[in-house]
Specification:
Layout: E1 3-5, E2 10-12, H1 19-31, H2 35-50, E3 54-57, E4 63-64, E5 69-73, H3 80-132, H4 138-149, E6 161-162, H5 167-176, E7 180-185, H6 189-193, H7 200-208, E8 212-214, E9 222-224, E10 228-235, H8 237-253, E11 260-263, H9 280-302, E12 309-311, H10 315-330, H11 342-362, H12 371-391, H13 397-412, E13 414-417, E14 420-424, H14 425-431, H15 439-452, E15 455-457, E16 462-466, E17 494-497, E18 506-509
Parallel strand pairs: 3-12, 5-10, 5-11, 6-7, 7-10
Antiparallel strand pairs: 1-2, 3-4, 8-9, 13-14, 14-16, 15-16, 17-18
């Protein structure tokens, strides 16, 4: 499996012969964006195409949809719209063709409805005359019942893409027309700041494919069953910052943020060279696959007997899935990677499972989902998870406390060497500012600094702080790996040195890192 490396982290590439990878590379080189940005957009279109065809089962039998909630955070000028057009144009074309067919079918429907009403009137007239003649109307009533069953129905609106709609209007449209759609926007400011996200729990329910009961005062209430809705949103950083400032706590608490697959790609602005053309054959193969899957999804919707296929994992993939689940669970333990983002971690295996199912289906693989597909899905989602922790999760309170405490140590502590201070807790409880004056939060910050190797006890009441970790104290935790304390150098930038004579070991900073 090939990998693509950028300055921030390693993004994995899928099989270069696959529709997913080849089209993503072609478009990223043409539009001149990071390959991972193109892959994320491609996944949105693929999820839309696959969610009406397949569901996927965990090894324990729990079945989930293959819908995805994707968010790309990128500045204006990052060519978000151009990227979206390349991957979602097949869906828009399919939707347009369906609407044209519906317009033609409406004419047929109106003609059939007129004929049906004439037949209804004729039967009613016959029934009245028969009744007046004192004859039995049982046969006529039977014919009327048969005619009622034959009443023409208009074809449903085949709306697949929604761009800005209120939650209630979206739910009703999915109920009245088809329960299959994608909320798409390359500039999603109006979605994050408008009425579309008024009801975030509703989007959580749709992500889960749960039945949705909608009660309305001014119009008919309804029940939306088995909806399939994906989100493929792109927004500028300032839009997301405002959303998080205004509704971040709510969105975290109700689980909306934890379901997102997030990316803030490396910018290519200022380094573009003109791009290359997209291979027409690969573009057509991708478009044809989207069209074929949507056609199959509509056939399932129109059938009374057909249902979505439930994908399962092969024996080896089940073992790998369980290992992945265990790894994520262990990372939720105290001081683990997901200790402060357990809500996100709890949804990570779900997203990994969905991505694996989408890749399996879109590439046309037969049988059960194999290990290599699941492995790639995990590696990809782990990279997205890192982006979530960096850009959406918010700074853990313990990090805020510790950064503040370090600043207070510098202000109140007694310097005894270069970037080394002596202090005691009473000093902060009496003269500290902010959280460092609170005994509980002070202890929390000190405990973390001790585990990071930057604070040691020198007596029963006194402590010593060093900007670099103490050379003779083992670090239980590592800055920049387990936690990200901005006021401290990263663990990897520090090294032990014995000096010129080799007699005085100390920790130093590698200036090249």
């Amino acid at each position: 499996m090939q990998t693509n490396i950028n300055s921030e982290e390693e993004w994995p590439a899928f099989d270069e012969q696959s529709l997913f990878e080849s089209m993503s590379r072609e478009v990223s080189q043409h539009v001149e964006v990071a390959p991972e940005m193109a892959r994320t957009t491609a996944l949105g279109a693929m999820a839309m195409a696959c969610q009406g065809v397949v569901d996927v089962a965990f090894p324990n039998g729990h079945v989930v949809p293959t819908s995805l909630n994707l968010l790309t955070i990128a500045e204006s000028g990052e060519r978000k719209t151009a990227l979206e057009n390349w991957f979602f144009q097949p869906i828009r074309d399919f939707q347009s063709a369906q609407k044209k067919e519906r317009q033609l079918s409406i004419q047929v429907y109106q003609r059939n409805l007129k004929n049906w009403r004439n037949a209804e009137k004729a039967l009613e007239k016959k029934r009245t005359q028969t009744y007046l003649n004192g004859e039995s109307i049982e046969e006529i009533e039977r014919q009327q019942a048969e005619l009622d069953d034959q009443k023409p129905q208009p074809s449903r609106l085949r709306q697949l893409i929604y761009e800005n709609v209120t939650p209630s209007a979206l739910a009703f449209s999915l109920y009245e027309n088809i329960p299959l759609a994608c909320l798409v926007s390359s500039e999603a400011g109006n979605i994050f700041e408008g009425r579309a996200f008024q009801d975030l729990p509703m989007f959580n329910s749709m992500w889960s494919g749960s039945t949705l009961d909608v009660s309305r005062r001014s119009s008919e209430s309804f029940t939306l069953e088995n909806p399939r809705l994906s989100l493929a949103l792109m927004a500028q950083p300032k839009v997301i910052d405002r959303f998080l400032e205004k509704r971040g706590s709510e969105a975290r608490d109700n689980g909306f943020l934890s379901r997102l697959i997030v990316i803030k790609p490396v910018s290519f602005i200022g380094n573009r060279k003109g791009g290359s053309s997209v291979d027409a054959k690969k573009s057509k193969e991708f478009s044809d696959r989207v069209t074929n899957l949507l056609t199959e999804a509509f056939a399932i919707l129109d059938s009374k007997s057909r249902q979505r296929k439930v994908l399962r994992f092969s024996s080896s993939a089940k073992t790998l899935w369980q290992q992945i689940q265990l790894s994520i669970e262990q990372d939720m333990a105290e001081h683990g990677k997901y200790y402060h983002a357990r809500d996100h971690a709890s949804k990570l295996i779900d997203n990994v499972t969905r991505v694996a199912a989408i890749l399996h289906t879109f590439e046309g693989y037969e049988g059960d989902i194999e290990s290599h597909v699941l492995e790639y899905a995990y590696r990809l989602c782990k990279c997205h998870s890192n982006q979530y922790l960096k850009y959406l999760a918010g700074e853990p309170e313990i990090v805020t406390i510790t950064n503040e405490l370090i600043r207070e140590i510098r202000r109140l502590g007694y310097p005894i060497g270069e970037d080394v201070f002596n202090f005691n807790k009473t000093l902060f409880l009496q003269n500290g500012r902010g959280k460092s004056r609170n005994r509980k939060t002070l202890d929390q910050g000190l405990q973390l600094l001790i585990k990071l190797g930057h604070v040691i006890w020198t007596s029963h009441t006194n402590l010593k702080f060093s900007e670099v970790r103490f050379y003779n104290v083992p670090s239980v935790l590592k800055n920049g790996i387990d936690y990200h304390i901005e006021e401290l150098p990263s663990y990897e930038s520090q090294y032990f040195s014995t000096g010129d004579t080799g007699r005085y070991p100390e920790t130093r900073i590698n200036a090249s890192l």
